[in-house]
Amino acid sequence: xxxxxxxxxxxxxxxxxxxxxxxxxxxxxxxxxxxxxxxxxxxxxxxxxxxxxxxxxxxxxxxxxxxxxxxxxxxxxxxxxxxxxxxxxxxxxxxxxxxxxxxxxxxxxxxxxxxxxxxxxxxxxxxxxxxxxxxxxxxxxxxxxxxxxxxxxxxxxxxxxxxxxxxxxxxxxxxxxxxxxxxxxxxxxxxxxxx
Length: 195
Description:
The protein is an all-alpha fold. Helix content is 58%, strand content 0%. The relative contact order is 0.17.
């Protein structure tokens, strides 16, 4: 969809040939994989956010976004259910699984505030009834996340003053560079290959 809207490009070029600063992604999704609990906690935070976001995007005044969102919402709900189930399994599992999940939640918590920061694009999308403000999702996200963590015997971290910001504006940590180097290596080495 982004390739169609942008014009003069395609999905492969957007994925494999963009520079790091041309990506607009949250710092949370750039964090390195350390263990299963860490991957799962990060996925859960994003799944809750996506569930709320896409439930609003299905009502977008942009018909392309509405159509894509209606197709995507089923998959998003599946991912949300799966990661929610795993939060409960790890939290209520063994002492070790609970400890690892708690450590992951503690480590990732500082990245979650960025989910709800409105940048210029968010403001334009909201003004034109294309998408919601990210900030409008925070209360419901917090309610869902806190409920899942409480029922899984995971302590909710204190809100951190420190939070990474501006991923949606193209400013990233070094972690994204490593992800892109691995992802883009072969397409850049063999630019005419068909995938």
